[in-house]
Design brief:
The protein has one domain. Helix 1 runs antiparallel to helix 5 and helix 2 packs antiparallel against helix 3. The longest helix is centred in the C-terminal third of the chain and has 24 residues. The termini are close together. With 114 residues, it is mainly alpha-helical. It is 81% helix and 0% strand. The chain has five helices and no strands. It comes from Thermocladium modestius. This is DUF4345 domain-containing protein. Keywords: Membrane, Transmembrane, Transmembrane helix.
């Protein structure tokens, strides 16, 4: 078993809330505004980096690294305003589906920490 601080579960709960909200908004064709989206993406990238440290050597390393890179890129794209210019209702609905997939992965992470 991996030694985990109770705060790890709190960090995971924040990720669950972010992704449940992101999925809800996305599936409705709505977006997270630019400023909070930038900060959320940075938080998510740091979360995945922390999980990479906790789960080093785990089969989850590749998807953790992928999600970390995606979120660093997302933070940059939010900051520069690219996502707002590229967003359409159809793309946002696809994004909502992606958020649901990521939410499932977060549950897998949390289960692997227990």
């Amino acid at each position: 078993m991996i030694p985990v601080l109770p705060i790890t579960y709190g960090l995971g709960a924040v990720m669950v809330a972010i992704h449940a909200g992101g999925a809800y908004l996305g599936l409705r064709g709505e977006a997270i505004p630019r400023t909070p989206g930038t900060y959320i993406s940075i938080y998510e990238a740091l979360y995945y980096a922390a999980m990479m440290l906790l789960l080093a050597g785990s089969p989850l390393m590749a998807p953790l690294a992928l999600f970390a890179v995606i979120h660093w890129a997302g933070a940059f794209a939010y900051y520069r305003g690219y996502l707002g210019r590229l967003s359409t209702p159809r793309r946002l609905k696809l994004y909502g589906a992606y958020e649901l997939v990521e939410l499932g992965f977060i549950f897998i992470i949390m289960a692997s920490l227990s």
